[in-house]
Amino acid sequence: MVHRPLEAERGMDPDSDLFSPGYFRVLLKGGDRAVLEASTENGKPAGAAAAVDLDPPAPPEPLVLLARALDHYVVRRDRHRTIIAGYPWFLDWGRDTLIVVRGLIADGRLAVARDILIQFARFEKDGTLPNMIRGRDAADRNTSDAPLWFCVACRDFLKAAGTADLLEADCDGRPLGRVLADLGGGLCAGAPNGVTMDPESGLLFSPAHFTWMDTNHPAASPRQGYPIEIQALWQASLALLAAVDTQNARGWQRLAHQVARSVEELFWDPALGHFVDCRHAAPGTPARKAEADDALRPNQLLALTLGASADPAITVPTVLACRELLVPGAIRSLADRPVNRPLAVMHNGELLNDPRHPYQGRYLGDEDRRRKPAYHNGTAWTWMFPVFCEAWAAALGPAGTATARAWLESGLRLMESGCLGQIPEILDGDAPHTPRGCDAQAWGVSELLRVWRVLNPESSG
User: Fold this and answer.
1) Three-class SS of residue 63?
2) Are 427 and 333 in contact (CB under 8 A)?
3) Which residue among 2, 9, 419, 440 is least packed, with the fewest CB closer than 10 Å?
4) CA atoms of 12 and 5, how far apart (whole Å)
5) Residues 313, 316: Cα–Cα separation, whole Å
6) Averaged over 166-180, what is the pLDDT?
7) How far is CA 402 from CA 80, 301, 302, 406, 408, in A?
8) Which residue has the higher pLDDT, 309 or 241?
9) Could you report the per-residue pLDDT of 247-306, keeping only the tens digit for each?
């Protein structure tokens, strides 16, 4: 009955029997050396080397470290490849996989990225892609962002490849370019999973729990309505469609401009000094009549890095505001400050938080009553942290790039503990910012690699 404190922190049964065959102990003083050699082969070990080099090797270049870490997530699904989102626990998720594809493209792994894009293009139906794939079951379509990340990844690929060959790739009878057009058309018409376009503003409505902030049971961050990052992804997707769907280019271009105008008109709040995170609404409610929140979250950074807004009067205050969310190597999902629009987290009739100050800085305890309410309400995420660094450099120009690089390097420190050579999923929002969640998370690695390339274009390691 050995007590395991990590399980206790997570509200799990912490006591069970463990087995150990024994231990070795050796006393070492200055100048002493000891070599322990073991073998699974029959016979005696060959014997210790005459001299053992105890000096640590020089650390690899950051890009070498990150590329090596990324290798562990690329796996095969049938004849194509896909991405395991994290170890332990995760399978291949739509949004995670397609975000990671951007890192693969930035690292020059175009063949692998192409294979994954074709794999997911085969699953497109009526403007939807799988939220998660279980074996051969791709019926879970509860995501509003996976189809949009697919478009952004295709955009990145076409730019990196320098040719449009990807658009002709066969995806179970449809060329990939046709898949993109069908996806855009499905979203404009209204997808069967409830993702619909508001015709007045051009913005996309997202059902509850369909974004990456998808914690449910209890509903800790539902964000039903018009989330800011969905609009940024949608605008970037429309710009891609205008470039690749030549028959309907003008229509896509008009819609892209309409969405960009709506983002600045309906989401930018000068009084807050940053974008509204979500305009909350019931299905069928126009974006203009949706209720704007005042929560400071990092999702708005994607409006800057994906090109939905480039006005310095907006971009500079936005990144300055989001600086409040930073912790070393990660960015908090919610600011530690009161909110005017309350966020109540209820579970089985019990109120689990302070609705007027919903920030929770430690991801500890029972899953439903403690960890889920904290997951997107203060917990710091590694995958969005490089996006902040990218947005900072984009908003402040050359003067801000050195600072962005310095911040980005703090992400590498996370690879020196825990699961060595990997990036954890999350950290506590409160100091000392203990790593939590998955010990190794794919998009934490891939986004750090991608933005490292963006901010250090001269790097070749």
Assistant:
1) helix
2) no
3) 2
4) 10
5) 6
6) 97
7) 39, 19, 21, 6, 10
8) 241
9) 999 999 999 999 999 999 999 999 999 999 999 999 999 999 999 999 999 999 999 999
* Cβ atoms of residues 339 and 294 within 8 Å: yes
State which H helix or E strand residue 110 sits in.
Answer: helix 110-121
Determine the Cα–Cα distance for residues 194 and 207; give it in Å rounded to an integer. 6
Short-list 199, 200, 298, 217, CA closest to 208? 217
Token reading at 252: 């896509």
Residue 250 buriedness (CB in 10 A; 0-12 / 13-18 / 19+):
exposed
Least confident of 69-78, 195-204, 423-432: 69-78
The answer to whether the bond into 88 is cis (omega within 30° of 0) is yes
Q: Residue 245 and residue 341: Cα distance in Å, rounded?
A: 41
pLDDT digits (tens, 9 = 90+) for 29-43: 888 888 888 877 776
The overall pTM is greater than 0.85 = yes
Count of C-beta atoms within a 10 Å radius of residue 30: 4
Give, in order, the Cα–Cα distances in Å from 424 to each of 87, 195, 258: 9, 31, 38
CB atoms within 10 A of CB 278: 29
Under a CB-based contact definition with an 8 Å cutoff, are residues 74 and 112 in contact? yes
Strands (E), 282-423: 291-292, 326-327, 330-332, 346-347, 350-351, 380-381
How far is the C-alpha of 110 from the C-alpha of 108, rounded, in Å?
6
Tokens of 120: 């997911």
**Rounded CA gap, 134 and 220, in Å?**
25
Which residues are paired to 331 by β-bridges? 326, 381
pLDDT in tens, 334-355: 999 999 999 999 999 999 999 9
Task: Give the confidence band of 47 by pLDDT, cuts at 50, 70, 90.
Answer: low
Helix (H) / strand (E) element for 227: namely strand 225-227
Taking residues 219-238, report their average pLDDT.
97
For residue 138, what pLDDT is reported? 87
What are the DSSP calls for 250-314, one per residue? HHHHHHHHHHHHHHHHHTEETTTTEE-SEEE--TT--GGGSEE-----GGGHHHHHTTS---HHH
Query: Which among 199, 231, 203 has a CA at the least distance from the CA of 306?
Result: 231
The amino acid occupying position 384 is M
> Are 429 and 332 a contacting pair, CB within 8 Å?
yes
C-beta separation of 152 from 237 below 8 A: yes
CA angle, 113 as apex, 424 and 226 as ends, to 5°? 65
